Amino acid sequence: MWGEIDRRLLIKLGTAGLAAMALPGAAEAMAAQGFTHGVASGEPGANSILLWTRYAAPSDTRLTAELSETFDFAVLAGGGSVTAEGERDHIAKIVIGGLDPGRWYYYRFIAPDGSASPTGRTRTLPQGPTSAFTLALFSCANMPFGWFNAYGHAAARGDIDLVAHVGDYLYEYKAGEYPSAKEAVPGRLVQPPQELVALADYRLRYAAYRADPDLQRLHQLFPMIAQWDDHEFANDTWKGGAENHNEGEGSWTDRKAAAERAHNEWMPVAEMRWRDYQVGDLATIFLPETRVTARDEPFDLDALLKGKRDVAATLKQFAEGAYRDPQRQLMGGDQEKWLFDGFARSVKAGTRWQVCAQQIVMGALFTPPESQNWFGPDQPDFVQRRVAVAQLAAKAGLPLNMDGWDGYPAARDRLLAAAQRADADLVTLSGDSHNAWAFDLTHDGRPAGIEVGGHSITSPGFEAYTPGISDEARVSALRAASPQLRWANTRDRGYVTVGFTPDRVIADWHSVASVRSHDLALTGTHRMTAARGRRTYDA
C-alpha cells in the first residue's frame, strides 16, 4: 500500500487534465486539437514501459515524452521523442527503456508549443524474488448498456499493480441493436451510429469509449496488458469470418485488417498478436490470441440439425466424432508451441505461477435440465427452439457454449496436457461470457489448474434472459450439471482482482451496485483461494 503522499498525488492525478464528468463526446473529441484522450501505458517489462497518447493537429507533430519518479518531474528517469502521425489517427506510442524494476513512475508528453498532456502513472514489473503482485481483470464493456463503474472503482484503489483486459473492450453493433434503443442507458450513446466495418468506423468507436472518464482514469493510473476478443472485430469472430459479417459488408479480410489496425493504434499494446510478461520469480503471464489467427469456424448446432429427423441420433454421432476432431484449431500450431514451451521454461526457471490471460471460458459448462423451464412460453420461436436443442445436446454430452474452449475440446486437451507435462501451476483468466466463474480445470482425470472467469463491465448475462429465476437457482443447477464448476455469479456486473503470493492465489470478484447510473458502490465481493501445488481451489 502507498503512503499518504501517494494518496494525495493520486487525487492530483485524477484532476490533472481530467474533468471527471465533463469530457467531450467522441465526435467533439475527434474534432478537438491537442491532447484529446489523455494518456495510457502498457507492455510493462522489468526495465521498460510503453507510453501512449493522442495529439491532434493539422500535420504530424513531434512530441517529447518525459518519465520521472516524482510528480514534479524535477529529475527525469527517461524519455524520448515520438511523432503523433495523422496517418495513424494522431496516435503516439513510444517504449521507454533503461528503467528500474518494480518501480512506479510518472509520465507525460510535451507538445512543441509547450502544452502538456495529463500526467499519467505507471510501473515496471518486478525482477527476482517477489512477495506479492495484484492484477485487475476486465472484459466486456458495452457502453450503451451502462456506466463503466467497474473501471471507476478499480481506478480509485491503491493496491493494483497491473490491469489485464481480455477482450470486448468495445462493441461493433450499430446504435439500437445491442442494446436496443429501449434498453440503452440515457447519455451512453456511441459514435458512429452505424455498425463498424471500415477503419474510420472502428477509430471513431474507440474515440467514443476513450472519452469515458472512468476508462480514461484507469488508463491514466495503471499499466494495461490487453488482448482483443470478438467484438473488437465482429460477433463470434473466427479466422475466416464472423457471425456478424455478411457479403454486403465487403471483404472480411479488409474488415479484419481495419479492426486490428484501429486496435493497435488506440490501445497501449505492442503490435504482436501474442506475448508474455515476467513478474519476478512469482508469475509468467501469457497473453495468447484465440480469435483471428487460427480459430476454425465454431460449430453451429442449428446448421448441423437442419433437415435431420432424428435429432438425438445426429447429436450423439456428432459428439462422438466431428466434435472431438484433433485437427480443429483455436490458437494454431505456432502459437501452441510458443505457449507450451513457455510453460516449460517458466517452471524450469523456478517461477511460481503460470498465468494464461486469455479471452474465452476454458472450464466445461453444460446446460442443466432445469433450464428448460427458465425462459417462459412467451419467448420467440427461435429461443424456444434453441432451448430444446440445448437440452438434447446436453444429453449427448455436448457443452453449453460452442464459441468458448468447450467448442474446441481437442485444443483444450492439448493445452491442459502441456501444463501437466510442465508441472505448471496454471491459472487461467478469462472473460467473454458476461458472468463470473470459478472452475477447477482437469485433464485425464487429474487436476490441471484453476480458472478465474470475470464478469462483464456492463454487458448483460444470464440474468437478462431468465429474469424470473434467482441467481441461486441458476448457479445451483449449473453446478450440478458441470462438475468442474466451483462457484458462479450469473447476476452481477463488475471485475476481479487476482492477488499472487509465492504460495497462494487470491481471487476477489467485485460486484458493482448498478450500471444504469454512475455509482462506484459495490454490492459485495466474493473471495476464493488456491494453494500452489494443488491446482484446485481450496475447499
Features:
PhoD_N; PhoD-like_sf; Immunoglobulin-like; 13 helices; 20 strands; 2 domains; alpha/beta; signal; Purple Acid Phosphatase, chain A, domain 2; Alkaline phosphatase; seven-stranded mixed sheet
How would you describe the overall organization of this protein?
With 539 residues, this protein is an alpha/beta fold. The chain folds into two domains: 1-124, Purple acid phosphatase-like, N-terminal (Immunoglobulin-like); 127-295 and 330-365 and 400-539, Purple Acid Phosphatase, chain A, domain 2 (4-Layer Sandwich), CATH 3.60.21. It is built from 13 helices and 20 strands. The strands form three sheets. A nine-stranded mixed sheet has the order 5-2-1-10-9-8-18-19-20. α8 packs across α10 and α9 (333-348) runs parallel beside α11 (409-421). The relative contact order is 0.12.
Write the layout of secondary structure elements.
Blueprint: H1 4-15, H2 26-31, E1 34-42, E2 49-56, E3 61-68, E4 76-84, E5 91-96, E6 104-110, E7 120-123, E8 133-138, H3 149-155, E9 162-165, H4 199-210, H5 213-221, E10 223-226, H6 252-266, E11 275-279, E12 283-287, H7 301-305, H8 311-320, H9 333-348, E13 353-357, H10 381-395, H11 409-421, E14 426-430, E15 436-443, E16 446-453, H12 462-465, H13 471-481, E17 485-489, E18 494-500, E19 504-512, E20 522-531
Parallel strand pairs: 1-10, 8-9, 9-10, 12-13, 13-14, 14-16
Antiparallel strand pairs: 1-2, 2-5, 3-4, 3-6, 6-7, 8-18, 11-12, 15-16, 15-17, 18-19, 19-20
Helix pairs in contact: 3-5, 4-6, 8-10, 9-11
